[in-house]
Amino acid sequence: MEPLSEQKCIMIIAGEASGDLHGSRLVTAMRERNKALFFCGIGGQALKASGVRVFVDASELSVVGITEAFSKLPNLLKGMAVAKKTLKRLLPDLLILIDFPDFNLNVAAFAKKLGIPVLYYISPQIWAWRPGRVKKIGKIVDHMVVILPFEEDFYRKHEIPVTYVGHPLLDTNLDYEKKAFQKPESDISVIGLCPGSRDREIARHLPIMLGAAQILLKRIKNVKFIVSLAPDVKRKTVEEIVNKHKGAADLEIVSGHVKKIFERSRVVVAVSGTVTLESAISGTPMVIIYKVSPISYWLGRAMIQVKHIGLVNLITGKKIVPELLQDQASPIRIADTVFNMLSDAPGLEKLRLELLQVKHALGGPGASGRVADIAVGMLYDA
């Protein structure tokens, strides 16, 4: 093994907000093991703050759905060209890819031709759709690092080097469970709204959520709605939508970490994604919703090979929280579902305890450190 003081160059690509956050923690953990590391790549504010020299901002690339990708195709192609040019010029000692599969798998194939080792952190959901990609992954990825318990067996069956490290959310959310047992906010029923972390997601989901809020306002005497403002989303984007629904209720926009929403809410309405796992870890009951364009939905439906889309339901292997997708994600269906949940106090408590069990299925804290050990090992092992 070479001395750890020797400087190495790592290129890292995280094309979405959650990957940007997990990537920043990984960079910090790697620097704790070796300060003589140079990082560059594609990412957002979190990676920039961790000292990564970002040459393409992730906000220019992030898309939702199949047809939505067309609107950002020029940016995606430009970003991919810049990534490949940088790989060829720098020849980094390691390429770390975080989720963002269609983009990252293309870059991984290019890196493989250059002889650059590839570590893939947070697996594409190929177990859910397009499983044929596993053959491609086996040829271009040197080590796959997974964060969901059932993913490890999937890759082992295909003889791909893989390590299950647990979920990085547990590194920051350990105080949730204690707070989950506290009564959120006097006698007021607080309902959290988590419309997403991308502008297009918010534009599609928040008006529907606010429509549900208008209905619930007529059914529940003391109710308040709090809207989560994701870190990379401009407040003005959310305010403009909220202002069109001023008659909905007492609406408060809450910025910062989404745990502020969970700490106060009896129930949250959340778009499918990482936020639903965060809600589960906090023991906060939820309704999962999601809408994409009709073409994206029908194309996706034809390829998806799992019964549920919510990560909580996938991990438990059963539908413990409601999923309202596409046409079902309407204001009236959301309002009915939330109202029924709030009207069943014993059922709500049972669900809260079931959700806390999800936390134990995700492994213990320290995921970022475990990935850092693998990455540093790849840098210095002969």
CATH homologous superfamily grouping of the largest domain: Glycogen Phosphorylase B
Q: How many structural domains?
A: 2
Task: Please tell me what the overall shape is.
Answer: globular
Which percent bin holds the helix content? 40-55%
Unreliable runs, pLDDT <50, ≥5 residues?
A: 178-184
The CATH class of the largest domain is Alpha Beta
General description of the model:
The protein has 382 residues and is of the alpha/beta class. It folds into 2 domains: 8-166 and 366-380, Glycogen Phosphorylase B (Rossmann fold), CATH 3.40.50; 176-361, Rossmann fold (3-Layer(aba) Sandwich). It contains 16 helices and 13 strands. It has a 7-stranded parallel sheet with strand order 3-2-1-4-5-6-7, sandwiched between helices. Strands 10-9-8-11-12-13 form a 6-stranded parallel sheet, sandwiched between helices. Helix 6 (151-157) links the parallel strand 6 and strand 7. Helix 4 packs parallel to helix 5 and helix 11 crosses helix 15. The longest helix is centred in the middle third of the chain and has 21 residues, at 199-219. It is globular, with a radius of gyration of 21 Å.
Quick summary of this structure?
With 382 residues, this protein is of the alpha/beta class. The protein has helices at 17-33, 45-49, 73-90, 101-113, 133-140, 151-157, 176-180, 199-219, 235-243, 259-264, 274-282, 294-303, 311-316, 331-343, 345-361, 367-380, and strands spanning 8-14, 37-43, 53-57, 94-98, 118-121, 143-146, 162-164, 189-194, 223-229, 251-255, 267-271, 286-290, 323-325.
